[in-house]
Structures are given as C-alpha cells and as structure tokens.
Design a protein that fits this description.
G-protein coupled receptor; mainly alpha; about 5% strand; GPCR_Rhodpsn_7TM; G protein-coupled receptor activity; three-stranded mixed beta sheet
C-alpha cells in the first residue's frame, strides 16, 4: 500500500513540473472561526455517542444467546464498519478544529480517501446482505436455518470485503495519479472525491466515468436488489393470515428499511449527480449527514425499534447492576 501511494505521489509531482503538491489544506469550517470550539464540542459528543452505541450493539449481539442468529451477526458487522468509518474522518476533523491548520500530507489524504470509499461501499454491501437475510427468513422460513448457517454468513461478509477492496484501490490510484496544480486547498473537512477532482488540472473524464460505474455497481445495483427483496417480502407478509405475524414481520424489517432510505438517499444525491453541479457548501452539508448524523441515528433506530435488542440491553443492565452491587 505504501509503495502504491508513493508511486502515485511521484507521478503527481512529475506530471506538473511547475507546481509540486506534497500536502493539501483541508479548509473544513474555517469560514466560521467563531463557531470552531462549539463545533468541536458537538462533534466530539456525537463521535463518542456513535462509538458507545455501536459498541453496545456489538457487545449484546455477540454475548446474548438469544441474538445468535444471522440478522444480528450482520448487524454486529455493520456496527463495526460504522465505528471504523467515523474514526477515519471525525478525529481528523476534531484535530483540525483544535489546531485550525488543516494541513494533510498527500499520502495521508490518499489513505483517508481509500478508507472512506472502502468502508462506505462496505456499508452498502452489508445493507444488501441484510436485506437478503430478511428475504430468506420471511419468504423461505423452512430452508432459512440450512441456507443461512454460520459458514454462509461469514462467507457473505468476506465476499463483501473481497469485492470492494480491489475497486477502491484502483479508484484511489486513479484519483491520485492526476496532476494537481490549481490549488492545494480542499474546501471540505476530509479528503473526498468531488472536492479533490475540482483541484485536478488534468482531464478527469475517465475518473468521473469510473465513479459513475462504481456508483452503479456498489450503490444502484445493491439498491435494486434490496427493492426486489422487499417487494417479495411485503407480498409474502400480506399473505399471512395472522395479524400478529404480519406485525412481527414488518417490525423486523422496518429498522433496516429506514437505514436503507437514509443511506441511499444521501449517496444518490452526493455521487449520482455531476461533480460540477455540486456546490462546496452542499457537499459539506451532505458529508456531515452521512459521516456523522446517519452513523449516530443507526444504532438508535435499531435499538428503539427492535424488541429483542431492547430485552438484551435490559439483561445486560441487570447483569452490570448485579455485578456492581456484589
């Protein structure tokens, strides 16, 4: 990885001999200096809340015997990816708010972008796998334990990682192979594709095309698979004669549907439109939404709307109280 990034850095230097960019400056929220410390406090609190809530979900889904089923295995993996995703962006943003410098090396920017794309793409793939799991559980309940066994679940998660890593590596190489000669100031709070491409002085047609293709493969195709899965799930639920059965089936899917709507709505607005049509302010606002707000809402949505997790949390609270009193 280090060799790959040093290669693209050297390529960026040699393609433009007049200006050599060895570091970028993340402007972040420098346009509102009077709000720097207030934003620092808000983002720090939100970051700690995300870590705590997702950590709790990982803990209860791994330790509670009642939650040892595929749905919670995937949810635990999703929470882990969420923690990694926010850790790639928020600590760096907090540091910049403190120091008010915002400088980031070429190498660090490439690393950050690589992990942002990788973990973001992984979330979309996991949401698709979770939709498939709900489809099998509701539409094929007799075959569900056999089809969705532990080995299959592990393979599905591994397949998500294996499919996303080569694509992300290739995209990162493409973006950082471009010559950057316009400016080294990124009007964003982390290294993201749209603001980086605005700084490139070479032809970005191939890069934009690659982004749209990747968006189709990792956003639109999974989205269509989720839609098809839920159309079949809803048709199957409506055939149930028991009102209680329909209610239970809908309740197990509602949390996932809300998260899917939040993720895909933001992603389509951010990456499916032409880069030139997106203003810097709108880009930052959307990025705040999917890097901080959605990861903060996800564990809340899953815990408040899931009775099994609520029960598991109460049991954990009872155990901790008992341990504290003993």
């Amino acid at each position: 990885m280090e060799f790959f990034l040093s290669t693209v850095e050297e390529q960026s230097k040699t393609e433009n001999s007049n200006i050599t960019i060895t570091e970028f400056v993340l402007l972040g929220f420098s346009d509102v200096p009077h709000l720097q410390w207030m934003l620092f406090g808000i983002f720090l609190l939100m970051y700690l809340t995300i870590l705590f809530c997702n950590g709790i979900i990982m803990l209860v889904t791994r330790t509670d015997p009642a939650l040892q089923i595929p749905m919670y295995f995937f949810l635990s993996n999703f929470s882990f990816v969420e923690i990694c995703y926010v850790t790639v962006t928020i600590p760096r943003m907090l540091l910049d708010l403190c120091t008010q410098k915002g400088t980031i090396t070429f190498f660090s920017c490439a690393i950050q972008l690589c992990f942002v794309i990788m973990l973001g793409g992984m979330e979309f793939l996991l949401l698709t796998v979770m939709a498939y799991d709900r489809y099998m559980a509701i539409c094929n309940p007799l075959h569900y334990p056999l089809v969705m066994n532990n080995k299959v679940c592990v393979r599905l998660v591994a397949a998500c990682w294996i499919s996303i890593i080569p694509v992300v590596t290739g995209q990162t190489y493409q973006i950082f192979s471009l010559p950057y000669c316009k400016s080294n100031k990124i009007n964003h709070f982390f290294c993201d594709i749209p603001p980086l491409l605005k700084l490139a002085c070479g032809d970005t047609f191939v890069n934009n095309l690659a982004i749209y293709v990747a968006s189709v493969v990792f956003i639109m195709v999974p989205f269509l698979l989720i839609i098809v899965s839920y159309v079949k799930i809803i048709c199957n639920i409506l055939k149930l004669s028991s009102a209680g059965g329909r209610s239970k089936a809908f309740s197990t899917c509602s949390s996932h549907l809300i998260v899917v709507a939040l993720f895909y709505g933001t992603a389509i607005v951010t990456y499916a439109q032409p880069m030139s049509n997106q203003s810097d302010s709108m880009g930052k606002l959307l990025s705040l939404f999917y890097t901080i707000l959605i990861p903060l809402l996800n564990p809340i949505i899953y815990t408040l709307r899931n009775k099994e997790i609520v029960v598991a949390l109460r049991k954990l609270q009872t155990k901790l109280s008992t341990y504290g009193n003993s």
